[in-house]
Design a protein that fits this description.
With about 375 residues, the protein is an alpha/beta fold. It is about 40% helix and about 10% strand. It is globular, with a radius of gyration of 23 Å.
Length: about 375
Amino acid sequence: MFKPSTDTRPRLFQVLLLPNFSMLAFTSTVEPLRAANRWAGRSLYTWELVTLDGGPAIASNGIHVLPDGRMGALPRRPDAVAVCSGLGIEGFRSPEVNRWLRGLARQGIPVGGLCTGALVLARAGLLDGYRCTIHWENMESFAEEYPALNITATLFEIDRDRFTCAGGTAALDMVIALIRDEHGDALAVQAAESMIHTGVRRPDDPQRLALRERTGVSDPKVLAAIARMEAHLEAPIPVEDLARDIGVSERQLERLFRKHLSTSPSRYYLNLRLWRARALLAQTSMTVLQVAVASGFTSASHFTKCYRTYFGHAPKRQRIPGPDVATGTTPPSDPVDPPIGDELAVLETLDPVGERMDATAVPPPPRPAPPDADPSDRAM
């Protein structure tokens, strides 16, 4: 990523901290640089923190970080700039940030995105023609907004003078890779081991836990069925075809899902589609009809009925405003839970194929959020 240089001065990283930035992604970027300096016995890297106005940055976990100054106002020319963001970035728009990032790119300074920072780079037009990645929860909405981009599901991407990562500890692996590229394996290994990071991952390692760990299910047929469901949310596969694809009868598949997940394959599939719709509503400006179609529903009215039955409110209420640039605050949103567990009982008012509502059924009340749940708990 860095151009060869005979200059012995340390590389300067600038990190732009946006409102509600991911603390884990930020510290996972800076700490490997500190460790590399320690083991090298000299300053190979330095870093500066900047914000939109020079005021304190507030992370998604509520911690305040005092920056070194305002974006674009510090005297030294950085060797690389990373945009660190997190929750609620979908509604973030800043022409000032776009101009600053474009100016850096014109100077040949590498620019990157940590966690959802890739979205900020894309809106500045800086990812065209580059490989890029983003946190898995934002992957589909990112692709919907920027279908022409080369978006991968990798942990991180370093493509010439652009670097992006999925956030969280993926930033750690990315920075260790940068240290390795510039200073060799020995220093990269020392930096990783000093942080007890004994499993340094490759860029193409998966972002998410294995399906077995995510669901708590070990039956291979159930896991194969769920994998097929997750791969076909926009165009759902009929249950009988799904069963045939994995080599069991439809009745056997029903029994397996009842045994391991206490629900039917159809209702589990519908649940996955509803959670995809919820993410698209929260993270994109797509219309309700567009979200319905992207989630495999046949009409906006049917989708609205299913959505209201499960979540307790209409889809249009799911819109989550982005952070206010002036205050750095984001209105609270409901926590996102995995599409398994007791909440599946809500879907009992739907028929097995999820295509109509029982006219006599009374929708249940909204499912309350856990009392200690906080959207900032998500490690990005």
